[in-house]
């Protein structure tokens, strides 16, 4: 016997919900493992907003930052934009070098070589 007080469905009602058939021309996004293997490059937020929101390779995601490695429970969160697409993409624009303030107000700056290292195994068009 179900307890109606514990049922949460009433709190999550959806109105105006429409189901569209998938267009056969749209590519199926690869698996999460494929994204991990490809490696990301930082993407300018403005470029993401104007050219990459409809691309399966562009994304904005939450990033967790451990501020102090000796106190790993101290964390910050922010959103960042990334591109997993081909290096030859005409829309790609790198964002500014990312900065992370850490222990004792030291600042780590993620330089360009980080993107190069994460994607060095890929060719220009993959």
The beta-strand count equals: 5
| Strand line-up in the sheet with most strands | 1-3-2
* Span between termini: 55 Å
Query: What is the string of helix and strand elements?
Result: HEHEEEEH
What profile does the largest beta sheet have?
3 strands, antiparallel
Cα-atom radius of gyration: 20 Å
Strand content: 15-25%
* Proportion in helices: 10-25%
Count of alpha and pi helical runs: 3
Average pLDDT:
84
Task: Please supply descriptive tags for the structure shown above.
126 residues; alpha+beta; three-stranded antiparallel sheet; two-stranded antiparallel sheet
What does this structure look like?
- The protein has 3 helices and 5 strands.
- The longest helix has 8 residues, at 45-52.
- It has a 3-stranded antiparallel sheet.
- The radius of gyration is 20 Å and the shape is globular.
- The relative contact order is 0.18.
- By secondary structure, the chain is α+β, with helices and mostly antiparallel strands.
- It has helices at residues 32-38, 45-52, 112-119; strands at residues 41-42, 58-66, 75-83, 98-101, 107-110.
- The mean pLDDT is 84.
């Amino acid at each position: 016997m179900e307890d109606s007080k514990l049922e949460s469905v009433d709190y999550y009602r959806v109105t105006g919900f429409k189901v569209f058939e998938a267009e056969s021309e749209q590519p199926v996004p690869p698996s999460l493992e494929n994204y991990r293997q490809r490696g990301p490059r930082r993407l300018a937020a403005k470029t993401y907003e104007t050219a990459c929101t409809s691309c399966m390779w562009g994304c904005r995601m939450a990033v967790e930052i451990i501020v102090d490695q000796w106190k790993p429970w101290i964390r910050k969160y922010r959103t960042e934009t990334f591109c997993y697409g081909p290096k030859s993409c005409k829309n790609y624009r790198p964002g500014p070098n990312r900065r992370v303030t850490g222990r004792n107000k030291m600042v780590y700056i993620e330089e360009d070589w980080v993107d190069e290292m994460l994607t060095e195994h890929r060719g220009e068009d993959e």
